[in-house]
Amino acid sequence: MAEKNRSEKLKRLVAVQRHLERIAENELADTTRQRSEVTESMERVMDAIGSVDPVHMAFSIHYADRYGRLMIKDQQLESIQTLIQMKVQQERTKADRLEEHMKDARELETREADDNAVYDIIDQRFAGATPASSKVQKP
To answer: For 85-95, how does the pLDDT look when each residue is reduced to its tens digit (9 = 90+)?
Structure first.
């Protein structure tokens, strides 16, 4: 029974670990989306800087500052994205390892149950073959 409890506990741990993996994947998706938005903003600013429209030319210094800030934000998001990718991989590895342990525990439980069933059959067989009167010793 203790082993059965172990596989059930591991099953719950696997579920929790998979949930942590999904959380990390969502964080990664969010960071990737933010980087995409920053990249789009950088492209729009570059278009404005290269524009011959007099309104854009008047704000070229502002656009250059904006582009610099966007580059810094993109670098920060890239670093965060790399860290989250590593976190996703770690969480996935932990979950996979726990799942393997759970499968091993289930296999051991099944084997133990099968062994116990065989022992019960053997015990019943020998108990039925030995008459009760032979167990009592005669003086």
So the answer is: 999 999 999 99
99: its two tokens = 């799942």
- Position 124 scores a pLDDT of 86
pLDDT confidence band for 24 (50 / 70 / 90):
very high
The C-alpha torsion from 17 through 22 and 23 to 27, rounded to 10°, is 140
Distance, in Å, from the CA atom of 66 to the CA atom of 4, rounded to the nearest integer, reads 61
The one-character DSSP state at 138 is P
Burial of 99 (0-12, 13-18, 19+ CB in 10 A): middle
Q: Which long-range contacts (CB under 8 A, 24 or more apart) does 26-29 make?
A: 27/84, 27/87, 28/81, 28/84, 28/85, 28/88
What pTM value is reported for the model? 0.71
- Residue bearing tokens 């959380």: 23
Report the SS3 class of residue 30: helix
Q: What are phi and psi of 131, to 5 degrees?
A: -70, 150
